[in-house]
Design brief:
Blueprint (H helix, E strand, L loop, with lengths): L3 E6 L4 H6 L2 H8 L4 E6 L6 H10 L3 H4 L15 H7 L4 E6 H7 L7 H4 L1 E2 L8 E5 L6 H15 L3 E6 L1 H9 L4 H23 L3 E5 L15 H4 E7 L6 E9 L3 H9 L16 H4 L2
């Protein structure tokens, strides 16, 4: 088992993400990580894809079919599987993550923002509720959780790309700048994380179209990047063919040394080094 960070960049489409991730692309070019092109599940909406990303189940199975369904997850997920095995979990994330995995019921900004001793599957959480919450603050929140509670699994969840995509569309300078800005934050934090032995996975829940919308099946709404930095993963570019978003949850389980839940895929399309030895 190795400590793992998941960075979820809300609404970061594959092409714009790739064009503005200079340091991540540099690491891939130099054999320091792996990159995949992911075909997102449907509907390409936030709350359904949070649940898909963390349970490995399609929306028709897990039942979160749109953003208006407010209830806790009903299936094993990466957070709950960690807690079952005594691992420590943490999240600096949007309020919907609290509603799914930490505290049941509608999020109360006055009571639920700081859940440093969480009641649910997230042991320690700091949750925000404004879509334009600055990434500077988000990464500061996550670093506080990382350094204070030393979690085994830590989620950073940024909404700034989604915010500017809705306001200006994914073809706008504002959207591209939001992507570039969050990639700069990651470039600052990633080297010390890797030095300390953290595994880091960077992806998105869905994309965004030029009209500032998402939810449908077009490539701009559902094609997303996946960067993986881990000694367990075969490095290189694996972007010729798309892999399914259903692979993310079992991949995280494998990195964390957990057995994937029964409903998750029993195999993953990401090349792991231990698979090469079979």
């Amino acid at each position: 088992m190795a400590k793992t960070i998941l960075i979820l960049l809300d609404a970061c489409r594959y092409d714009i993400g790739s064009e503005n991730a200079g340091y991540l692309e540099h690491l891939i070019d130099n054999g320091r990580g792996a990159k995949y092109r992911v075909r997102g599940e449907l509907p390409s909406m936030s709350r359904p894809m949070y649940e898909t990303s963390l349970t490995g189940l399609p929306s028709s199975v897990h039942g979160i079919t749109n953003n208006q369904i407010i209830r806790p997850s009903r299936f094993p997920n990466v957070f709950s599987l960690c807690r079952e095995k005594g691992l420590v979990t943490a999240a600096a994330a949007y309020q919907w993550m609290s509603e799914l995995y930490s505290r049941p019921g509608r999020f109360d900004p006055l009571a639920d923002r700081f859940q440093l001793e969480g009641e649910g599957s997230i042991c320690h959480g700091i949750f925000y509720y404004e879509d334009q919450y600055p990434d500077t603050h988000l990464f500061g929140d996550g670093e506080f959780l990382r350094k204070t509670y030393h979690p085994d699994f830590l989620l950073f969840h940024s909404m700034n790309v989604d915010y500017w995509g809705h306001r200006r569309g994914s073809g706008s300078p504002e959207y591209a700048q939001a992507v570039a800005t969050v990639m700069e934050h990651i470039a600052q934090l990633l080297p010390p994380w890797l030095e300390e032995g953290w595994q880091v996975v960077i992806t998105a829940d869905h994309g965004m179209n030029a009209m500032g919308m998402h939810g449908g099946p077009t490539p701009d709404q559902r094609t997303i990047p996946l960067y993986i930095f881990s000694p367990q993963v075969v490095p290189g570019r694996f972007e010729e063919e798309e892999i399914s978003q259903l692979n993310l949850a079992p991949l995280l389980c494998r990195l964390l040394g957990l057995a994937p839940a029964r409903g998750m895929r029993e195999y993953i399309q990401v090349a792991l080094k231990r698979d090469e030895k079979r």
